[in-house]
Amino acid sequence: MTARVALVLVSHSAELARGVAELAEQMAPDVLIRGVGGGPDGGLGTSLDAVQKALADVLTILADGVPDAGAHDGGALSSAAPGGVVVLGDLGSSVLTVEAALELDDSLAERVVLARAPFVEGAVAAAVTAHGGADLATVLESANASVRMFAAIEAAQSLEAGGATSDGASGGESQNSRTVTVRNPLGLHARPAALVSRKVAELGAAMTIDGVDASSVLQLMALGATQGRELRVEATGERAAEAVSTVVEMIEAGFGEV
Amino acid sequence: MALDADWAERWVRRTADAVADAKDELTELDRQIGDGDHGENLHRGFRAVVARLDDEASGRGAEDERTVGDVLKLVATTLMSTVGGASGPLYGTAYLRAAKVSGRPQIDPPAVVAVLEAALEGVSSRGKATVGEKTMVDAWHAAVEAAEAAAGGGGSEVDVLRAAAEAADKAATATIPMVATKGRASYLGERSAGHEDPGARSTALVLGAAMAAALSGPTPADPRTSA
Q1: Chain A closest CA to B123's CA: distance in Å?
Q2: Residue B96 pLDDT > 90, yes or no?
Q3: What is the dihedral sign for C-alpha A69, A70, A75, A79?
Q4: If we measure between CA atoms, which residue out of A198, A257, A210, A252 comes closest to residue A234?
Q5: Residues of A with CB under 8 A from a CB of B
Q6: Is B43 on the interface with A (CB under 8 A)?
Q7: Based on CB atoms within 10 Å of each CB, which residue in A18, A149, B4, B58 is the most buried?
Q8: How many Cα atoms sit within 13 Å of B59 on the Cβ side?
Q9: Mean per-residue pLDDT, A55-75
Q10: What is the three-state SS of A193-215?
C-alpha cells in the first residue's frame, strides 16, 4: 500500500458500494478503498454510524502506514505530505450523511473531503490518481473532473470526425506523434486503461490518444478501442518523445493479454 | 417562565407521539411525491430518541444540570444514526445547530427565536434549499418569521412557539399547489403540484409539539398521557 490517499464510497446500497469498491480496487490495487452502504436497518439508505466507522478505520490504517511508506519511498512521500480520505456519495441522503459526519467531528475536516462527482466514474478516476501517490487535493480534483468526462469525450470525437476529412495532410509520423494498433482482444478496457493513464501521469506528459486526455482513465475507456483499432498517440512537452514511445510499446505489447 | 431542559425533553417526547400518530399520513404524502419512507423513517428515529432519553434519565443524578442544548444534541445524533433517509441528516443538522445556540439551562423568548433560526439555517444549508421549493424549508422559514415577530412584540415563550407552530402549519398546507424544485419530489416536476410536502408537514408536527410542551408546563406527570 503506497498510496497516501484512501477512498470511502458511500451508497444507499451495500452491494453497490461493495461493487464500485471492487471495480476501483482492481484498477488501483495500491489504494485503500472502503465501500459503505445501506441504512441502519440493513435496507436501502445511509447509516451515519457505518460512515463514521469507515472513516475512523481508514484514517487509522493510513496513520499506521505513514512511517512505513516514508521508509520505502526514500522520503519522497514524507509523512508531512497531505494525505487523507476522499469520500464519494451516490445520491441525496448518502451525501447529506457524509456532510453531517464531517460537521459532527471538526477534527475530520483537515483530512477528509467530499467529492462532487458521479459515483462510479468519480471513484475510478480518484482511485487511479491516488494509485500514483497523488496528494489529497489532486485526488479530489480528479474525482470532481470526472463530471466533465462526457463533454470532453464528445468534444474529442467531434474534433476527430472533423479532422478525418483532411487527415491525409496531417497524418505524418514523428517522435511526438505515432499511430499504434491495439493488439489484445478486449482492447483498452478498465485494467489496460488504468495502466496507461497511470503511466502517463507518472511520466508527467501532456498526452492525447485519439484526441482524448490520456491521463484520464475514464476518457481512455470511453474510446471503446478494441482489437485492431488504430490509435493516434500524441504528446507535447519536454519528455514527449519518451512518453509516446513508452505508451506505444505498452499498447503494442498487448498488456500481457496476447 | 423560561424554557428549560425538561421542556426540551417534553418537546421531543411529544414529537415522537405526534410522529407515531401521523406516521401513516406522512408515509402516504411521501408515497405520492417521494419514496414513501418519511413516516416510517421519522417514527423509527424518534422512537430511538425516546429510548435514549429513558436510558439517560435512569443514569442521571438529581443534581446533574442539563442544558436545553444537551437534549437537542442527543436528538440530533440519534436521528442521524437511525433515520436512514435524507430526513435523518436534515433534521439531525437542524437539532445540532439548535443545540449549539442553546447550551444553557434556560432559554428566554429571544433565545427561542435563535434556536428556530439555527434550525432553519441547518436545514437549508444541509439541503441547499431556499424558500418556495416545496420542502421543509418553507415551514421552518415561515415559523422563524412568525417567531421573530412575536418575540419582537414582547411575546412570551409560549407566544413565540404558538406563532411558529401556526405559521409552520399554514406553510405546510401552502405547499400543496407548489411545484417542487428540490428534493426527491422535484423529479416529478409539474406532477408534484396538488400534494402536500411531507417534510413541511412533519416540521409543522415538530413545532406543534414544541408549543404543546411549553403549554403543558413543568409538571412531572408523564407528558405522553396528555397529548
Answers
A1: 11
A2: yes
A3: positive
A4: A210
A5: 39-41, 43, 45-49, 92-93, 96-97, 99-100, 103-104
A6: no
A7: A149
A8: 6
A9: 68
A10: HHHHHHHHHHHCCEEEECCEECC
Closest Cα to residue A90, out of A118, A58, A125, A131? A118
CB B127 within 8 A of CB B120: no
pLDDT in tens, A127-164: 999 998 899 999 999 999 988 887 877 777 776 666 54
CA distance B126 to B162: 26
Question: Which of B44, B83, B126 is nearest residue A99 as measured by Cβ atoms?
Answer: B126
Task: For residue A185, count other CB atoms closer than 10 A to its CB.
Answer: 12
What's chain B's average pLDDT?
91
Q: How far is it, in rounded angstroms, from Cα A92 to Cα B192?
A: 18
Q: Beta strands of A138-246 (E only): which ranges?
A: 177-181, 206-209, 212-213, 230-236
According to DSSP, the residues that pair with A236 across neighbouring strands are A206
For residue range B4-56, list pLDDT tens digits in order. 999 999 999 999 999 999 999 999 898 888 878 899 999 999 999 999 999 98
Answer yes or no: do B84 and A47 touch at CB < 8 A.
yes
Which cell goes with B81? Answer: 444514526
CA dist A24 and A127 (Å) reads 6
Comparing CA positions, the residue from A221, A54, A47, A49 lying closest to residue A124 is A221
Cell readout for B161 is 412557539
What mean pLDDT is reported for chain A? 85
Return the closest-CA partner of residue A117 out of A234, A20, A215. Answer: A20
**Dihedral of CA B140/B142/B145/B150: which sign?**
negative
Domains of chain B in sequence order: 3-217 (1.25.40.340)
Whether ipTM > 0.85 holds is: no
